Amino acid sequence: MRRLLVPTALALCALALAGCTSSAGSSSSSGGSSAVAPAGPSKVDTAEGAASTAQNADSRQVITTGSVTITVDRPAAAADEAVTIVENAGGRVDGRTEKAPVDGDRGSAQLTVRIPSAKLTTTLDALKKVGTVEDLSISKQDVTAHAKDLAARITALHASVDRLVDLMSKAATTADLITIESALSDRQANLESLESEKRSIDDQVDLSTITLTLGSTATAPAHLPDTFLSGLLTGWNSFVAFFSGLIVVLGVLLPWLALLGVIAIVLLLVLRRNRRKSAELTAAGPTAAP
Q1: Which of 30, 73, 191, 269 could hold 157 in an S-S bridge, CB 3.0 to 4.6 Å?
Q2: Is 133 among the domain residues?
Q3: pLDDT at residue 281, rounded to an integer
Q4: Which ranges of the chain have pLDDT less than 50?
Q5: What pLDDT sits at residue 30?
Q6: Do 191 and 157 form a contact (C-beta atoms < 8 A)?
Q7: In the chain, where do the E strands start and end?
Q8: According to the model, what pLDDT value does residue 48 have?
Q9: pLDDT recorded at residue 23
């Protein structure tokens, strides 16, 4: 029995040691793997960051202004077409000035249009098709900080007005009531002024202001010829323009030339008459003295 008990005890001890070793190795390996694995940002954090960036970009307040000069064949008709384009885009026309045609000049037109900022690019592309674009200038002004400051001040003034109204209802004396009413009047005046400024900024942000000038080919800026055909065409146009101008000058001077011709004829007749009288007196001879 003693011979059997000793090997059995030794076998049980060996099994116990083997189990402890395996459990310790597994725990150390799990701990090591958790320490080596990097802790990167999750997909949720990345999506939230992208959404925040997009929201900040959309919340910017930008005032857009500009001017466009276009050469057209008929400025008055082109102005009507431009008005239709702007109104179809949801905009409006705040000002319109037209110049009547004079001689070779077919007149001109100038429009002050308000175009929704979200449709500014597409509307400008449509306006460019009216004629030949000579000049285009667009400028932008970021007023985000100013707009947020106005909104914060308006919120604070609203709260102040509400408190003053509540205090006025609880005033115990006439002096307190007068003091509160004076302060309330000042707060309301400031509030109305800030709200008016905020509405103006919002209107300028929502609708871009563009000055559109429509001129005829007679008033279009001269383009230097860059090919033989363009040079030949420019020379022919200058030749025709020279003789056209010469005919106009002759038309202006013709009445004056006619008047000078009549005066010259009258003077010539008077001189001939005087010469004839002088010749007759000379032929009659000197008169005898008494």
Answers
A1: 191
A2: yes
A3: 75
A4: 1-11, 13-17, 20-39, 44, 47, 50-54, 288-290
A5: 43
A6: yes
A7: 62-71, 92-99, 108-116, 132-142, 207-215
A8: 52
A9: 47
134 in the same domain as 68: yes
Residue 40 lies in a domain: no
Based on the domain organization, do 132 and 152 belong to the same domain? no
Phi, psi of 282 (to 5 degrees): -65, -40
- Put simply, whether the predicted model's pTM sits higher than 0.90 gets the answer no
List 27's β-bridge partners, or say none.
none
Are residues 150 and 136 both part of a single domain?
A: no
Between the CA of residue 203 and those of 116, 151, 200, what are the distances in Å? 10, 15, 5
Calculate Rg over the CA atoms of the chain: 48
Identify the domain containing residue 167 by its residue range: 144-204
Whether 131 and 155 map to the same domain: the answer is no
Rounded Cα gap, residues 117 and 143, in angstroms: 15
Domain count, the chain: 2
Decide if 147 contacts 59 (C-beta within 8 A): no
pLDDT of the residue at 37: 43
Nearest partner of 85 among 53, 125, 56, judged by Cα = 125
Predicted pLDDT of residue 36: 41
Of the residues 91, 125, 141, which one is the last residue of a structural domain?
141
